[in-house]
Records
---
Amino acid sequence: MFDHATLKLKVDPLILSALNEDITSEDVTTNAVMPDGTMGQVDLICKETGVLCGMQVFFRVFQLLDETTQIQCFAQDGEKIQAGQKIAQIRGDIRVLLSGERTALNYLQRMCGVATYTRRVANLLKGSGTTLLDTRKTTPNNRIFEKYAVRVGGGKNHRYNLSDGVLLKDNHIGAAGGVRQAIQMAKAYAPFVRKIEVEVENMDMVKDAVEAGADIIMLDNMDHHQMAEAVAYIAGRAEIEVSGNVTEENIKALCDLGVDYISSGALTHSAPILDLSLKNLHAV
């Protein structure tokens, strides 16, 4: 759940931008059929099984349109929800309920979808001792929502953005002239409290990363045999992350490696939405 400061400073401007995208001057359809304000209520209905996530954001859409809007929730973020289940009842000006419907559902469906997919993937790692991480492969201007959904689903967040940590990827290494040089330059520049992570693609790069003192070594797009060899060579001298096209279908095969982390961009870039809808709108 977002704290009050985060909600006001980070979340509200994004929701307002989304509302402005959907209502450039007026909601002409709603204004045509509802020229005057009338109190009403509508039900939020789940249409398929999944993990609930994003109720605070969903309701915030209506609050920003009219702060007197009220909601009664029958389920909370993180809970499993079933097809046909009534999740909440929203009460307020019918014009607000109609105008905010699509934006509110877009956020909620997307966040529920990410949480649902993450929950399935995280369950595949249970008992392995390996932590599931997300990536920066998020929808522009929706990262705060999608990374929250990963946490609700049972995953953990990798760095939030480029200011959040040092991750030397292939192009950084190429620009620096090699793994050793990139790590040395990062150590000289970054604050000492920052860990240095480096992406490697073969055993020569693994050896260079260990000898240069990388804190975390990311094994990227290596085959299973190569990764096992790398884990044995690193032997606890650095934390190990596995990355590269990791999905629900193939993550189980990585459990025997005994690495610290597995990151998957699919958690945010490939999770389908969870189908929900607002139904039974009526005046009260």
---
Amino acid sequence: MKTEILKLLKSSQDYISGQELCERLGVSRTAIWKVINQLKEEGYEIEAVRNRGYRLKAAADVITEAELSSQIRGQWAGRTLVCYEETDSTNDRAKRLAEEGCPHGTLVVADCQKAGKGRRGRSWESPRGTSVYMSLVLRPEILPSAASMVTLVAAMAVAEGIEKAAGLSAVIKWPNDVVVNGRKICGILTEMSAEMDCIHYVVVGIGINVGQKEFAGEISKTATSVLIEKGSLVPRSLIVAAVMESFEKYYSLYEKAGDLSLIMDEYNSILANNGKEVRVLASSGDYTGISLGIEKDGELLVKTEDGKVQKVLSGEVSVRGIYGYV
């Protein structure tokens, strides 16, 4: 009921009476009053005027099931929603739910993580009330060797979602970082459970810096947030909803083709290092070359000084700009 009341308040341009809420939802005035007070306690600014009703003056930047459900409008991504005030890792939670049989498109979101994870076992700082921490459960009918492409699909969705929700122009640092003005605003971690010829599930973890005013230490040179770049705060639920909407769009094209051929040109148009010199950090030895963009299977093409074109696999190496992070 809380979700429905929020939706009605957000969609109304004027006051909406308690009687109308009662009739639409089939509940008592006392039940409506209790929910309105709960929303006020969560931080929503709701004006109540006798003989006129209720009006939402300002939404709250909260991560709750009611708030997220009132914003998410896609067909399947995030329609099954699990929210936590605090958890260990949304990826770990999502994997446990996937093992228990949760449906394709289940979204796990937390306001705070105690054991957030990045690539290669790195920790991901996850303070309360500042960022988007979410993990999406997918059950794709693809071979395990093609699962790494999902990370690139997610990066495109985040870049577009940030632009739609916050008005910021974002680019992708292949394969799993989203960048605004040369600094990282989002990281993506994709994990899966699979056998030799089939995937049980894929979990796409997405962390987006939203409300941080500053970053400490070395990370201050490479990280940024929506608040820093925009100069004003954007509710995290808007960003979650926008990313889920974009993810559905790009994922459907990926599913249709079975690879990235239908979105490859768009991906390359927002690839941060496309056409620029990059350093490839590989276990077999580092080398430099010119980034030529991705192929339909998600591999990055790098042309080395001797004219050869190397195919770079996302799980094996890191790519850096010659003069820094990007």
---
Amino acid sequence: MKKSYLAIDMGASSGRHVVGHFDGKHLELEELYRYENGPIEMQNSYFWNLPGLWSHVQKGLTAVGSKYGSSLCSIGVDTWGVDFAFLGRNNELLGNPYCYRDPRTDGAMEKAFAIFPRDQIFANTGLQFMQFNSLYQLLVMKEQNSPILEMAERFLMIPDLFHWLLSGIPCNEFTNSTTTQCFDPQKNDWAFSMLEKFGIPTSIFKKTSVPGTILGPLQSSLAQQSGILSANVVLPGTHDTASAVMAVPTASPVGSTDWAYISLGTWALMGIESTQPFVNETVSAFNFTNEGGVGGTIRILKNICGLWLLQECRRIWNQQGLKTISGQPLDWEDLNQWTAAATPLVSFIDPDAREFLSPTDMPQAIRQFAAQTDQTVPQSEGAILRTALDSIALKFRQVLEMCEKISGQKIKTIHIVGGGTKNCLLCQAAANATGCRVITGPIEATAIGNIMMQAVASGDIGNITEARQVIRNSFDVIEYEPQHIAEWNEAYEKFCSILKK
């Protein structure tokens, strides 16, 4: 008898409702609802459209309920990290959540270091330093005397917010809590002493709940509205990368550091899986992070700017009215053809440079970076895309070398999961740049990891190792072997020299 589970997989650019059907050995996916997402601008600030997102969640529940309402076992939500909302008195929602790309955190890290030294922040949190981390968002609210922060009684990450709306139960799920730079992975609790140094109210941070926790049934009004009558709300790894890493089809033991992963989408999250945090000078110097994983694991990783570079180029060119030969707006296949036709390894950028975080014109930002670093300035659309793609792949090599120094173990295989695996050019470039065998798939890794955690919670799968076996049995993968190694080694030396400028 098949069991069915619903993953509400909400990304920063799109969301989907995916039902997983599990027969005890194989998993099949069925996408029943999809929608676009993105920040909206109000008064020169960027927010998430929470009412709009909740409306999509409800519509998706109705779509699922009309087909599987009486047989659905459970529901779980995963999203991006760092962003949050607050509940006030009587669990009333306070305000609309800011988007991490809002510029209000410009300079916030430097202000934080003046209050509490950088090395001490890392010692307390083990997290990489990025200006949009929840800690710096909270510090800005504190500095601006935010009335919302003053009234707040409970801090909820974005997936926590949706689990509360679904079940009526507020909680802080572990994996997303660890993305805040407010959590101490060594104590497995909030970094209360550090938060007190910053004057951030510690009473808003509640005890965390681990992936696999069953919150309870869907709220009765939602059950009646959607027709989903007997499903529980279950916590997956609510940080999308935590769910994606669970879906890596490795046969290595859980926590083994002989392989690396890349969860490839708007961001590329690259790292290793461990059974314990690494909070030391090497990890701090490399600006790596210790984030919670499923099954008691820690994800030692680094954020890399991923397909955001290409997404923004496409958006700008469509905005400028650039069309295909048939007169249609540009799609991903058009971009892939342009990239393939361009000469590789000509110019490079640092994908993680601040100039590419939220530029008004990404193609122009790429050209300017090349000009400022005395390189050939890419002129055609294909040359711009090739510059970005080659640079992302070379960044993978740099981060891979860091992973090996942290773990002390040679890595020969890289697993790439997520929607970015559709970009075959980038996957091959990753193999070329790193000299590693690259295995790609499954594409819908985040939804799969979400669903498999629900199956573990229900007792239908025993543990993470068994879940990964099911994934290997259920989904195809593609393997890429390194090519043109000498040329890519030479390009890597040039890339590193450019980053030092």
---
Amino acid sequence: MSEHELWLVRHGQTEWSRDGRHTSTTDLPLLPEGEEVARGLRERLAEQNFALVLTSPRLRARRTAELTGFADAEQTEDLAEWRYGDYEGITTDEIRKSVPDWTVWTHPSPGGESAAEVAARQDRVVERVRAAEGPVLAFGHGHSLRVLAARWLGLAGTDGRLFRLDTATVSVLGYERGSPVLLRWNCP
């Protein structure tokens, strides 16, 4: 199964990603700079023949897919961002005023998803990738793609905290000698 690769693209920059605001269900457009950087990924992605292309249904991910040449990507809620509930649109510093040391990885998000719920969605993505007849490309979001990487590696979803992921970057998950590995991570 070493031929299976999962290419991940985090969406281009939005106003809230630039400002560090937790963005899940709020459907924000890409900033002009975010669109420009996303277009810059087109040539690199065009070099690969993907068996399946998936995207989060959120506008920022779909637009990134479109700008990189994959307007027909299949939308799946499994790639949607971690639902932050009451913390939607709020920065970590603002949350920590009432919940010291809060992180999405260690504390609940009232009205939002748990780490286990996000991991279950990402496990379904991993199953689809491993059943595909070649490399898969997925467009998504910072926290959920980090959970996806952790689950690919057989780690707990909360171990996604170990993988910084910037906007409009490409990462590749694959295999080495039968073991799931990170082949490339957070590449501009």
